[in-house]
User: Fold these one by one.
Assistant:
Number 1:
Amino acid sequence: MLRPLSGDRWNFTTAAHLLNRAGFGGTPAEIEKLVKLGPEKAVSHLVNFENIPDETADPEWANLTRPALSDSSLLGVQGKRNAGSSNARSSKRNAST
């Protein structure tokens, strides 16, 4: 079983290691922020990522609205598509005979 890291072993190197193990690393400023938080609060900060402000703008496509399609409307479109293609095949057959 792992034991919690003691506060006296928490430093820039161990905070950087935590960020690397979390999968994304960090800038020197981000590492310093974690050092100041201490090991327990640093882990909580990463685990509770919803609380971290994200100033990145959403891409345009993320704000587009899609029309709602129900199962029945999808079936109706599919039925029309099949009906149209069978009529086209019938027309071709009749034209060639």
Number 2:
Amino acid sequence: MSLPNKMYTECPYCYIEGLHYWHHVFGGSNKHHSEDYNAVIYPCTPCHTGNTDSIHKQASQEKNFALKREHQERIMGEFDMDLKTWIGKFGRSWL
């Protein structure tokens, strides 16, 4: 599946509408899995990288882990994936 790297949409955190760039829920070597399983969100710049509570900041790791847990649960349910299969694909679990 090909996803746009930016989209005019509402930020899922602060609800500001605008042109927002994508955030792969599962990054690094798992970015392609994020795209394959639609685990991509479009936060505004401040919520993505621009403030102390942004997804990429250390102070906000619980927000990042919650996002990973939410998408892991959704993907495992939608694709009837057991935990062993999940870990084989993504390398670890956030549940």
Number 3:
Amino acid sequence: MDFLLDPGVTFLNHGSYGACPAPVFEQYQELQRELERNPVEFLARRFDALTAESRAALAVYLGARPDDLVFVPNATAGLNAIAATIPRPAVHTPVRTLIASSTVLCAFLLCAC
């Protein structure tokens, strides 16, 4: 898959500062142009259908149901949305433990506790 990265750079950190594959970036640019040409049409009339279409395509790829998928702005926001649903002990409970792998996002650990 082609990326728009400088060919002289070996880029390994797609997790924190990931570049979009070129076809994804091109589609993003087309949608951005459509939004700029007619914001009301795009946001008020097309956005929900476009999002549903994207969720349906992603669901097929993942083998999931579209209604079980949501889009979030970034990994930290997604993890925080999940963490917010985890029941927490009462405030007076002296010990809370969060077990995570060494690859978990630091920002998630900071706000999950």
Number 4:
Amino acid sequence: MAKPVAGFDTNPQNINKAGRPKRKTLTELIHKKLDETPDGWDKLATMVLVKIFKESDRDILKTLWAHTDGMPKQKTEITGEDGDAVKIDISSALDKAYGSTKPKDNSRVHSDS
């Protein structure tokens, strides 16, 4: 006996046009819970800071600060020898990618002059 066909072509009612249901992230759930609780954020911040200072964990404090306020912008200036512009020779990379970058011999090219 033939097996019934079970694809979307023969069973379009099985297509979930809305897609997979969206789930909340852990961060969203924590935010929701803290927003529902009176002084939830203040209590959490106090509890975390007390724990950090009691344990004297500077790494956690640095990470917390960095993620709370964001890292300061950093600029990096790159210069070549004696402060000149950086010189980049890409000929070897071009040779590998496209073959030799040496000028072609144009002696076989005829001109109308």
